[in-house]
């Protein structure tokens, strides 16, 4: 009787672990950002959680968009309201994989896994006239460009067409 109840407890624990594990594509910003950050760390820094936290704060200063929002949630930015950097630095010092770190972070703050990367726009194959103004503004923002005096959609399209030769060699769009 006792052996059977232990078996059921172990089975329940295994099922619970599977249901709490990240599915494919979940927490994409968290996983990619943690992997990107971990790749920047040297072996001596990887062993000390305090050094990892300091490096993460430095890493966050160069982030933008969704990665910047991820840094904000973890406390890697000066304007962050809260900080759970210990939940990142300690598992990283143990060489825990990024997806497992993100599972732990999700338990602390569910917003972390709600972050999604914006879909990429292929400017070679897209008709700019069919895009929304929001997407046109995003293209300009990704290029760190502004469109002074742009009021109508055609103004944004004209500005993007002017800047296309300058940025089409870049791989981030």
TrEMBL record:
UniProt cross-references to SUPFAM superfamilies, sorted A to Z: SAP domain
Subcellular location: Secreted
Signal peptide: 1-21
Keywords, sorted A to Z: Developmental protein, Disulfide bond, Secreted, Signal
GO cellular component, one term: endoplasmic reticulum
Residues of the ARMET C-terminal domain: 125-167
PANTHER family: ARMET-LIKE PROTEIN, MESENCEPHALIC ASTROCYTE-DERIVED NEUROTROPHIC FACTOR HOMOLOG
Function: Required during the maturation of the embryonic nervous system for maintenance of neuronal and cuticular connectivity. Essential for maintenance of dopaminergic neurons and dopamine levels.
Similarity comment: Belongs to the ARMET family.
Identification of the protein by name: Mesencephalic astrocyte-derived neurotrophic factor homolog
Native source organism of the sequence: Parnassius mnemosyne
Classification of source organism: Eukaryota, Metazoa, Ecdysozoa, Arthropoda, Hexapoda
């Amino acid at each position: 009787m006792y052996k059977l109840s232990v078996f059921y407890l172990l089975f329940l624990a295994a099922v619970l672990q599977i249901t709490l594990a990240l599915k494919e594509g979940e927490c994409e910003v968290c996983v990619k950002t943690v992997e990107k950050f971990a790749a920047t760390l040297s072996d001596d820094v990887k062993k000390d959680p305090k050094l990892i936290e300091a490096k993460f704060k430095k890493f966050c200063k160069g982030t933008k968009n969704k990665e910047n929002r991820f840094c904000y949630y973890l406390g890697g930015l000066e304007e962050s309201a809260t900080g759970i950097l210990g939940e990142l630095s300690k598992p990283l010092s143990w060489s825990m994989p990024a997806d497992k770190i993100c599972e732990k972070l999700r338990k602390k703050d569910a917003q972390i896994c709600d972050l999604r990367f914006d879909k990429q726009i292929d400017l070679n194959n897209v008709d700019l006239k069919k895009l929304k103004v929001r997407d046109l503004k995003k293209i300009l923002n990704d290029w760190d460009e502004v469109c002074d005096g742009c009021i109508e959609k055609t103004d944004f399209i004209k500005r993007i067409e002017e800047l296309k030769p300058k940025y089409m060699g870049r791989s981030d769009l």
